[in-house]
């Protein structure tokens, strides 16, 4: 969920001013949260309070009627209505707000049902529902690899399940999506999955998404939500985004953290950037698991660490011909 918010804020300044510069500045005075963050927080808040997703999204969007970049033309009418009804949208708004449900539920069926429920109040087209479910499925499958970010060793398997579920073709040529502003689920979610297939860490995934010159904030949010579950978020990115959020949003994130601590794993290995295991972390594991468990875990982790580095290097090389 934090990955979606970070991706949104990072991409916000480039939504209507696209860049192809991979080395852009991540956070600046020109960045801010957009509707993607508002709706993601609204879904998280609904889960915490047991509220209807549509009511929560409607209330939160009315609380923030003029976010950076604004709302989509049809969605703004939904927000302003006193009796909002779904309007057959297949926009990517259904996919950018769905991530909290993948962190909340324990069974894949529950995740898919809840993902559909987050889309239906406004985006009730089958493509929007499928887009939301596919993103939630990718996150949930990555989170199933619970310890030490093992998901990075299984990216191909995770994506294969998502492709089988959705029927998406994620082998599109880069020329077909470069600098193409597409606000549909079917035009955005497959691109996010493609980026995940080539990325080497969380930051790399977000940079690839934003520098594609497309719908930067939403593609960043969708890609970031999946990347978080695979690689984790390095410490250097965990704190800077908070300065962009008002207290009520931070309160929801803190409550969600307390309710679902497994979704905020502090021990991370982000392969090519960010944090590796520190000596303090290993000492904690030693105290908790004892010497035998510690030796087994450390040996397995170090072996996986090298495997991940090799796999990520291969992915980075493969994208040179995309």
Describe this structure as you would to a colleague.
The protein is mostly helical and 322 residues long. The chain has a single domain (2-276), classed as ADP-ribosylation/Crystallin J1 (ADP-ribosylglycohydrolase fold, Orthogonal Bundle). The protein is built from 15 helices and no strands. The model has no long low-confidence stretch (mean pLDDT 89).
Question: Which key features would you list for this structure?
Answer:
globular, mainly alpha, 322 residues, ADP-ribosylglycohydrolase fold
* Fourth CATH level, the homologous superfamily: ADP-ribosylation/Crystallin J1
Kindly identify the CATH topology: ADP-ribosylglycohydrolase fold
Provide the gyration radius in Å: 19 Å
End-to-end C-alpha gap: 28 Å
Largest sheet: none
Order of helices and strands: HHHHHHHHHHHHHHH
Task: Give start-end ranges of low-pLDDT stretches.
Answer: none
Provide the residue-averaged pLDDT.
89
CATH class: Mainly Alpha
Please sum up the structure shown.
By secondary structure, the chain is an all-alpha fold. It is built from 15 helices and no strands.
SSE layout:
Blueprint lengths: L1 H11 L22 H15 L3 H11 L9 H8 L12 H4 L2 H6 L3 H12 L6 H18 L11 H12 L18 H14 L3 H9 L5 H16 L3 H4 L8 H13 L19 H40 L4
Helix pairs in contact: 1-11, 1-12, 2-3, 2-14, 7-8, 8-9, 8-12, 10-12, 11-12
């Amino acid at each position: 969920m934090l990955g979606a918010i970070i991706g949104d804020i990072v991409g916000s300044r480039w939504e209507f001013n696209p860049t192809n510069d991979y080395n852009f500045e991540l956070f600046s005075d020109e960045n801010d949260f957009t509707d993607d963050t508002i709706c993601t927080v609204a879904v998280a808040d609904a889960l915490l309070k047991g509220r209807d997703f549509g009511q929560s999204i409607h209330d939160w969007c009315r609380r923030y009627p003029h976010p950076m970049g604004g709302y989509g033309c049809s969605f703004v009418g939904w927000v302003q209505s006193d009796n909002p009804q779904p309007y057959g949208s297949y926009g990517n708004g259904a996919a950018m707000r769905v991530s909290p449900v993948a962190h909340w539920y324990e069974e894949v069926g529950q995740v898919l049902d809840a993902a559909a429920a987050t889309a239906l109040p406004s985006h009730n087209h089958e493509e929007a529902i499928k887009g939301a479910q596919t993103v939630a499925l990718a996150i949930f499958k990555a989170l199933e690899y619970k310890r030490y970010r093992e998901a990075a060793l299984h990216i191909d398997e995770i994506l294969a399940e998502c492709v089988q579920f959705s029927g998406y073709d994620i082998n599109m040529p880069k020329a077909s999506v470069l600098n193409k502003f597409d606000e549909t689920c079917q035009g955005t979610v497959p691109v996010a999955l493609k980026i995940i297939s080539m990325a080497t860490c969380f930051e790399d995934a977000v940079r690839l998404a934003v520098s594609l010159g497309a719908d930067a904030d939403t593609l960043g949010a969708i890609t970031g939500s999946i990347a978080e579950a695979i690689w984790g978020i390095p410490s250097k990115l965990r704190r800077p985004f908070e300065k962009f959020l008002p207290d009520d949003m931070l309160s929801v994130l803190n409550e969600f953290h307390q309710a679902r601590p497994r979704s905020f794993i502090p021990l991370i290995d982000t392969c090519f950037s960010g944090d590796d295991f520190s000596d303090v972390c290993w000492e904690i594991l030693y105290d908790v698991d004892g010497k035998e468990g510690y030796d087994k875990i450390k040996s397995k982790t170090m072996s996986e660490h090298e495997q991940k580095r090799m796999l990520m290097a291969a992915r980075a090389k493969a994208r040179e011909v995309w």
